[in-house]
Design brief:
The structure is a single chain. Helix content is about 40%, strand content about 20%. The protein is of the alpha/beta class. The chain has one domain: Alpha-Beta Complex (Spore Coat Polysaccharide Biosynthesis Protein SpsA, Chain A). Helix 1 runs parallel beside helix 2.
């Protein structure tokens, strides 16, 4: 086996169609990787489609599929990601998106890098991002926003392709309430002394649905970011700047 044990961590909010496709793919991937695995999918009761029902059926058929529900009153990507980190139980964690933006089989390349370098954390940047122009512009805005504080040009903070040792989570607390949770996680890993190695993965278009952060106002005809989420990102940056006291560099 390639790894002693593995938790695959994903988030699913209004992702029914993606869940039906991705979870069987992730199960097959895990079975090629280790004998001891779990598929942890963070869900929210507020999902408006059949995401939670579909996951319940999958979990009944395979106990290694573990839907975990955010606590009441907990909403947003940041709290969902932070909560998911408290639920994983295996020696390694593979965190990725459930919407097909990444090639799941690239996990094998990440494992090879981990084994060759003895890395604690392998992060893959997105290569040749395949998104509509509006999303690329919004993504550039997010990247610029993050780099106001996090000076780390080699990391694509918005890329959800991470393989890491679970042991580092014991001394980690995340405070972000927005998409800044993933950058904060990466920073915390580095501060805790993790050996970080960066690679790249070919980015894929989203298979179905739309991100929770985008809106398309009537009469405008283009995708725009949700201003409430932008506000939370700004608040998180200010909070972390005060907490860390200085600009982080990698």
């Amino acid at each position: 086996m390639l790894l002693p044990s593995l938790s695959i961590l994903c988030l699913a909010y209004n992702e029914e169609e993606n869940v039906r496709w991705a979870v069987p793919q992730l199960v097959a991937l895990a079975e090629k990787t280790t004998d001891d695995y779990e598929i942890v999918v963070v869900t929210n009761p507020a999902s408006k489609d059949q995401t939670n029902a579909v996951l319940a059926e999958m979990a009944a058929a395979n106990p290694r599929v573990r839907p975990v529900h955010q606590p009441p009153g907990s909403r947003g990507y940041g709290p969902a990601f932070a909560f998911g980190l408290t639920q994983v139980r295996k020696e390694f964690v593979f965190h990725t998106d459930i919407d097909g933006q990444f090639l799941f089989d690239d996990l094998f390349r990440a494992i090879e890098i981990q084994r060759t370098t003895n890395a604690d954390f392998v992060h893959f940047n997105r290569h040749r991002r395949k998104d509509p122009l509006e999303r690329k512009i919004i993504g550039l805005g997010f990247k610029s926003l993050v780099h106001l504080f996090y000076k780390c040009p080699v990391w694509d903070f918005d890329s959800a392709f991470n393989l890491f040792r679970t042991s580092f989570l014991q001394n980690m607390t995340l405070h972000s309430t927005s998409g800044l949770a993933v950058p904060e996680f990466m920073i915390r890993m580095s501060q805790l002394g993790a050996k970080v190695v960066t690679g790249k993965t070919e980015h894929q278009p989203r298979r179905a649905g739309k991100p929770v952060w985008e809106v398309k106002p009537g009469g405008v005809g283009i995708i725009l970011p949700d201003l409430n989420i932008v506000k939370k990102c700004l608040e998180d940056i200010w909070r972390q700047r005060r907490a860390l006291g200085s600009r982080f560099s990698c």
